[in-house]
Amino acid sequence: MSRDNSKLSRRSFATAGIATLAMTAACGNGVGNSNDVKIDARVDATLNQMYSTYPGTRDLAQKAAGMLIIPLVTEAGFIFGGAYGRGALRINGVTVDFYSSVKGNAGLQIGAQQYAHVLFFMTDAALARFRRSSGWTAGADLEYVVRDEGNSLTADTNTLTAPVIAAIFGQAGLRVGATLEGSKYTRIIP
What we know:
Low-confidence stretches: 5-34
Helix content: 25-40%
């Protein structure tokens, strides 16, 4: 096999691996083909769980210009990994749009996990940027208030002034930790 064909085969294998894992995650998260009523019901249940487990998030929700709630994200990986979930953008407690969350990654990893997450858009400008984008990507500047590594709300004055705040909770599975960095959010029609 020539050197060029070897590179092509590795690239094809890597691409196929990521696509397979992303499709597996999408099929296994229970949200895959749901319509808007089912997504909204899952969003309501997720918010109730978050508010009862982390009561301080109620205050964040009241101050937020809008919230993106992804009730269930399934993430799986074996060297290459992917994650998928669906949810709703709510403004003033009303669903205005539906979004998918997709993430791909590579590196030393093995396992699978599921979790819920909520993005709090704390300013009108942050919410407007999110809604105008054709595919908004979470970056390293995202502030976290809840990670399921501890059972407390950890918000400080720096966190509360951030334009976008994330809460990740309800983790179950065999992978350690969850981050939203690199997740891409795209508006969908359920």
